[in-house]
Amino acid sequence: GPPVYGVSTGMGALSHVSLSAAEQRSHQRNLLAGRATGSAPWLGVAEVRAIIAVRLRTFLHGEAGASAAICHALTDLLAAGITPAVPAGGAGCAGEVIQLAHCFGPLAGIGRVLDRAGGTRPAGDALREAGLAPFELGPKEGIALLAGVPGATALSLLAEAEAGSLLAMLTAAAALSIAAVRAPVDPYASVCARGDAVLGTVLERLRAIISPAGQPRMLQAPVSFRAAGPVLAHALRAADRLAAAVRRALAGVTDSPAFLDGRFVGTAGFYGLDLAAHCDDLAAAIAHAAEVAAARTHRLLDPHVTGLPAQLASRPGPDAGLVAVHKRAAGEVHALRRLAMPTYIGQIETSAGQEDVQTFAWAAAVNLREALRRARAVAACEALTAFQACALAAGPWPPGCGALLAGLAQVIEPIEADRPFGEDIDRVAAGSWLAGPDA
Question: Among 45, 24, 250, 48, which residue's Cα sits nearest to residue 143?
Answer without folding.
Answer: 24
